[in-house]
Design a protein that fits this description.
The structure holds 2 protein chains of 2 kinds.
Chain A: H1 3-32, H2 40-58, H3 61-85, H4 90-113, H5 136-139, H6 145-153, H7 158-176, H8 178-188, H9 190-195, H10 200-226, H11 238-248, H12 253-271, H13 273-280, H14 286-301
Helix pairs in contact in A: 1-6, 1-7, 1-10, 1-11, 1-12, 2-3, 2-4, 2-10, 2-11, 3-4, 3-10, 7-8, 7-12, 8-10, 11-12, 11-14, 12-14
Chain B: H1 3-10, E1 17-26, E2 29-39, E3 44-49, H2 55-62, E4 70-75, E5 78-79, H3 85-90, E6 93-96, H4 108-113, H5 122-140, H6 155-168, E7 173-177, H7 185-200, E8 204-209, H8 212-218, E9 221-226, E10 229-235, H9 241-249, E11 267-277, E12 283-293, E13 296-301, H10 308-316, E14 322-327, E15 330-331, H11 341-346, E16 349-352, H12 356-360, H13 367-370, H14 390-403, H15 420-433, E17 438-442, H16 450-465, E18 469-473, H17 477-483, E19 486-491, E20 494-499, H18 506-513
Parallel strand pairs in B: 3-8, 3-9, 6-7, 7-8, 13-18, 13-19, 16-17, 17-18
Antiparallel strand pairs in B: 1-2, 1-4, 4-5, 9-10, 11-12, 11-14, 14-15, 19-20
Classes of the chains: A mainly alpha, B alpha/beta.
């Protein structure tokens, strides 16, 4: 494999890892606050549909983005009400919302556009277009680093950079701010928060809202950045892959970046069977390559990659013990 | 803003806390009935009472968890509303719960500032807390490493963090709920020194406990609660444990069961080189040996988690081990298919487990069903090959309930509707009625009222006098001292030594429980 091909693969790694990273960070906020969210998938899907539809109708990607975030946060709010206020089972609520999203997206897209559950193809201002980073052309001549900067890092849409930026921000919020301290505490031992006179309910709702926001970004990126429009089941299990990455990352932001890049890399590899054939002299069928990220997901979820300790109060509704 | 505290400093004559006519009902249950109490500043006030007497409800009202149906709370002479914990904290009340409210993977500092951070960023709060902690540590003997994580700390240190949390929130009234339940005697002594210091600095302390010895040792005044009512408030110096016990229970109670000298016969249990390795590959029991003879009670003292539980589980048949265990001279199977509870019972071992809610009873099942668990295959409980003789079992249960003074004596009632003491009596009745050669008893009186303790202790001694062997495991040193004929102390999976109750004292046992051997070296 030559350097140029590697750069191409790394470039698509970054693009493909972006929705995973956003969803993974979304799950991180929720789960760190003690609310399991298996519904990342559904939120991404509905955000994808909403942003695709809104962008197609308005012609503005930004309106699409807002619609995506709004739709995702709506599902997040339902999950919050079910699991925080009514203390329901968080897994069941999440699964139910995934079903709702899976059905509702196709239904709405079909009734709006009548194109078999897809939204119309987006172009121009209705999509996130690549941004050239400063000096990309100038620096390209520098051996090794230059092409990496110009071909891998530069030339992505705004949401890719937003996702990358979200990593240090998440880390900072979680470990350097009052909100982060309380958020982590509420996921570990909500009683400690409650007896300190801080509202467990409010903290958890805030966390779930952030999850909705980030899933909204992830879904909008799928429909208006990575692809040009929403398609039926377009998330294809990315929400679950993000959950696996979250476990892999041991609920830490920086690890989440590396974990999702790994999954993104496998997805990118699947797009280039020719490269693998050339490098290893081995023709692996495309479906097998496509399965790689999912196989890694199963391996991660089976706990093969060391012991990951989830937040202690995760999944348990908080009932004030009196 | 803290007006309550300010007035407190000016008019020290007013009680730090005064409750007037506090009442609280849950449905038809009157948990607190017209309770009035005055706690003077700079004193330690004990509140003692049986389980369900209403102590915790009263303190929950004071800490803002419940709203009283009627009554007034006056703090430092000022009527105060306490609708939530935040209001209690503002009024200068700090609470140290029985189960700590700490975040296990946070550092001490992080736990201290949680909820009272200075601003949106953590750094300034952390450095302020570090400074304050240094002062508090010097002032009150409350030293804890501020950067240690809670999960790395001993229980005693964790409790200090809870106290520090309250002090950091500028509490001048400290409520401690059963604070010594989880401590070693040495840690309890240290806690009392801390409380002494706090009192000397003018803090007011309310100590909730069921241990009469602690009340006598540290409090200035003591209030006794029974069935939701405050039955008496007396000066500690003017009362005695016997009088307090009587006030708690409403009748005369024997605090120490009279027992004659042991009359040991043949060896019943012989354990040699017993080892247990748990699922995490940690060695829980590191090669111990012990013997118990017929007509003898061997008490195992130790802080919980030092291998006593595993010892009971091995002998009871639900934990694998290596080594040798003989019952009446015959080896028993420790790893094979005869290492289960059923086989143990067949060999004459009865077991009153430490955790009666998880291992002793099925809480949702009726008393009569609980009365036969483990023995349900016995021929006398079967009508024929297919059907059990339920009517017969109910009848037998009635007899046993009467015999063991289980109240109410209603076999159809689910186990969870009995009080802790009566639940324990059901378990005890089931195990003793089968006339075992060896009785294993773990924490026989944990969560049991003082009146029932007397009864349970009597039964254990009776069993000994009937020539049975008894292995008693308890974290209550008092209980070990008063029941045992011999005492073995366990620490870190080993037996530190054996003592005769008449020839030892709490201090010596306490040191052994902390891993210090007789010659003074650590194990």
């Amino acid at each position: 494999m030559d350097y140029a091909t590697l750069l191409q693969i790394l470039d698509s790694t970054l693009r493909l890892a972006t929705p995973l990273l956003l969803a993974c960070l979304a799950g991180l906020f929720s789960e760190r606050a003690g609310i399991f969210d298996i519904g990342l998938e559904g939120k991404m899907l509905i955000a994808g549909m909403a942003s695709g539809a809104a962008a197609a109708l308005s012609g503005s990607v930004w309106i699409g983005l807002m619609a995506g975030i709004g739709a995702s946060m709506m599902l997040a709010a339902i999950h919050g009400v079910a699991s925080i206020t009514f203390r329901g089972n968080q897994l069941i609520s999440g699964v139910a919302l995934n079903f709702v999203a899976s059905g509702a997206t196709v239904l709405i897209a079909q009734s709006l556009f009548g194109q078999g559950g897809r939204t119309p193809p987006l172009s121009g201002a209705a999509r996130f277009n690549p941004i050239e980073l400063p000096f990309a052309e100038a620096i390209k001549a520098v051996p090794f680093v230059g092409p990496f900067y110009a071909d891998v890092l530069s030339g992505h849409s705004a949401l890719v950079y937003a996702a990358l930026l979200a990593v240090p921000i998440t880390w900072w919020v979680l470990f350097r701010t009052r909100f982060g301290l309380r958020l982590r505490a509420v996921g570990e031992n909500p009683e400690s928060v409650d007896t300190a006179g801080v509202s467990v309910i409010r903290l958890r709702y805030t966390a779930v809202a952030i999850t909705g926001l980030l899933c909204g970004l992830a879904g909008a990126y799928m429909a208006t950045g990575l692809q040009a429009g929403f398609g039926r089941e377009m998330t294809a299990g990315r929400g679950y892959i993000a959950l696996a990455a979250l476990i892999f990352a041991k609920w830490r932001p920086w690890y989440a970046l590396w974990a999702t890049l790994l999954f993104g890399f496998l997805q990118a590899l699947a797009l280039r069977p020719d490269v693998i054939e050339r490098s290893f002299g081995l023709a692996i069928p495309v479906p097998a390559l496509d399965a790689l990220p999912y196989i890694l997901t199963v391996i991660v979820l089976a706990g093969v990659v060391g012991r990951a300790i989830p937040p202690r109060a995760g999944g348990q509704p908080y009932v004030k013990e009196r | 803003m803290n007006p309550a505290q300010d007035t407190g400093r000016q008019e020290t004559a007013a009680p730090a806390i005064e409750l007037r006519g506090i009442s609280k009902a849950f449905g038809s249950v009157q948990a607190n009935k017209d309770i009035s109490i005055r706690v003077m500043p700079g004193t330690i006030h004990g509140i003692i009472g049986e389980n369900g007497a209403g102590k915790s409800t009263l303190m929950s009202i004071l800490y803002g968890f419940y709203k009283a149906d009627a009554g007034e709370i006056i703090i430092h002479g000022r009527p105060t509303q306490i609708p939530d914990s935040q209001a209690a904290i503002r009024a200068g009340i700090g609470m140290v719960f029985q189960h700590f409210k700490l975040v296990q993977n946070f550092t001490v500092l992080e736990n201290i500032i949680l909820g009272v951070e200075e601003g949106a960023l953590l750094r300034p709060s952390l450095s302020k807390a570090r400074e304050t902690l240094k002062h508090l540590a010097e002032e009150y003997e409350l030293d804890v490493d501020p950067d240690a994580r809670i999960e790395e700390l001993s229980v005693g240190h964790q409790q200090r963090v809870e106290i520090l949390k309250a002090l950091y929130r500028q509490a001048d009234i400290l409520i401690l709920d059963e604070p010594t339940g989880v401590l070693t005697p040495a840690e309890a002594d240290h806690l009392f020194r801390i409380l002494d210091n706090l009192r000397a600095q003018g803090k007011t302390i309310i100590l909730i406990t069921h241990k009469l010895r602690e009340i006598m040792e540290i409090t200035d005044t003591v209030s006794v609660m029974r069935r939701g009512e405050m039955t008496a408030t007396v000066k500690t110096a003017e009362t005695s444990p016997e009088q307090l016990a009587e006030l708690m229970v409403g009748r005369k109670v024997l605090l120490h069961v009279p027992k004659g000298p042991a009359n040991p016969g043949a060896t019943v249990l012989e354990v040699e080189n017993l080892r247990v390795v748990d699922a995490d590959k940690v060695e829980r029991i590191k090669g111990i040996g012990l013997t118990i003879r017929a007509g003898e009670i061997l008490g195992i003292a130790g802080v919980s988690g030092n291998g006593q539980s595993e010892l009971l589980q091995v002998l009871g048949g639900y934990c694998r081990a290596t080594g040798s265990v003989k019952i009446n001279g015959q080896e028993i199977d420790l790893t094979g298919k005869h290492s289960d509870g059923q086989s143990r019972r067949a060999r004459g071992i009865a077991h009153v487990p430490e955790d009666r809610h998880h291992h002793g009873l099925v809480l949702d099942f009726a008393a009569w069903e609980n009365m036969i668990f483990g023995y349900h295959n016995a021929p006398e409980y079967q009508k024929n090959a297919l059907i059990m003789d339920n009517a017969g079992i109910v009848e037998k249960t009635e007899g046993a309930m009467e015999h063991f003074d289980v109240r109410p004596p209603i076999p159809s009632l689910p186990a969870k509707s009995f009080s802790g003491g009566n639940q324990q009596k059901i378990v005890l009745a089931r195990e003793i009625e089968r006339n075992p050669d060896l009785l294993l008893v773990g924490q026989p009186t944990r969560g049991v009222d003082i009146g029932a303790i007397e009864f349970i202790h009597k039964r254990i001694v009776e069993l000994r006098d009937a020539g049975k062997a008894v292995l008693l495991v308890s974290v209550e040193l008092d209980e070990i001292m008063s029941l045992s004929d011999r005492i073995a102390v366990m620490f870190d999976g080993r037996i530190m030594g054996e003592r005769l109750p008449a020839e030892t004292n709490e201090r010596e046992l306490g040191l052994m429980m902390a891993g210090v051997t007789g010659s003074g070296e650590a194990a």
